[in-house]
């Protein structure tokens, strides 16, 4: 089978990219041929089709000047360069199925137009809540918000939920409205939600509920040596962004004893602010490693007492949690979004309220004081990962969804041909 993976980034930037690249490797191992389409970027892995990628567009921070901003907004709505580029890839690669991931902004739904015209079946994994939340985050000035799910997209503008900016919020709301108005995602035959939580929000918003399927992300616990020695630091892994709540973890460190250590792997716009906070509230006890390879992250997990995921937004199904479980490490995470579907409180980790450093410190202290108990909790987490998140099970279920997409595409093609004949 020839699978075309489509995502705006082609390097290990976050959970979506980690999933896509690991899945592609697995598919190649099982005999499939894989190709990628993405935005040009200096960190991209080599690709046979990179000459057809649309140019790099940096949106954080946004482009300066009215002309540059206007061009970036236009590309968010519809990218002619992305459509033209993927059409050339389709012509040469001739995919049996296209598997889309995060295409918003830099690629836009324009790629779907080319896939539809070529009759390519399309599956799309929803790694975040963009289709029901214009700003991606389910956040309104740091507070959880789902106003746009059951209400009007005008809420995003009224609340200025994107960086407290009326203009930025209006652009994102307009983007979502236009894509819905012109049914830009109609070419997707099957939508995949990793969590029941996100699937529920999409169903509530009436976003293609008939095409929505739930499928867990995956890992390969059998290829990862589990943690075997008790003890170690607390760790956080991920993009250093407001929604991830890393500041809560740092403040919790200030409430713990002098022997407690926190190691943070990842980078992002909040790094300098977080480093200053750490120097102030927990001097010498918080380490920032920056971006690390997957292997380095797995080694970090195995050295840890627990992974902290103190998110203040609704998480979908974080790959970091699944990978920590596969390493035999418990997770302390907030009871938001899909986290409660992963963490069994008291068995594979602890669930805590968001934005509460004292609650996080209390949960962490209990594990730090009982390293053997923490190790036992991690073993339970690994058993769960082995049973629920195996790569073989995921690949088998995904193959069935690919087949469903092909049947749906064939049916829609037949209906279109019949309509043309009747005219």
Write the layout of secondary structure elements.
Elements: E1 2-6, H1 15-29, E2 33-37, H2 66-77, H3 80-93, E3 97-100, H4 110-117, E4 122-125, E5 139-140, E6 143-144, H5 147-150, H6 154-159, H7 166-181, E7 190-193, H8 196-204, E8 212-214, E9 234-237, H9 246-253, E10 262-265, H10 271-281, E11 286-290, H11 294-302, E12 306-309, H12 319-326, E13 331-334, E14 349-352, H13 357-369, H14 371-388, H15 391-422
Parallel strand pairs: 1-2, 1-3, 3-4, 4-7, 7-8, 9-10, 9-12, 10-11, 12-13, 13-14
Antiparallel strand pairs: 5-6
List keywords for this structure.
15 helices; six-stranded parallel sheet; alpha/beta; Rossmann fold; 423 residues; 13% strand; disordered C terminus
In brief, what are we looking at here?
The chain has helices at 15-29, 66-77, 80-93, 110-117, 147-150, 154-159, 166-181, 196-204, 246-253, 271-281, 294-302, 319-326, 357-369, 371-388, 391-422, and strands spanning 2-6, 33-37, 97-100, 122-125, 139-140, 143-144, 190-193, 212-214, 234-237, 262-265, 286-290, 306-309, 331-334, 349-352. The chain has 423 residues and is an alpha/beta fold. The chain has two domains: 2-131 and 185-218 and 391-422, Rossmann fold (3-Layer(aba) Sandwich), CATH 3.40.50.2000; 222-388, 3-Layer(aba) Sandwich (Rossmann fold).
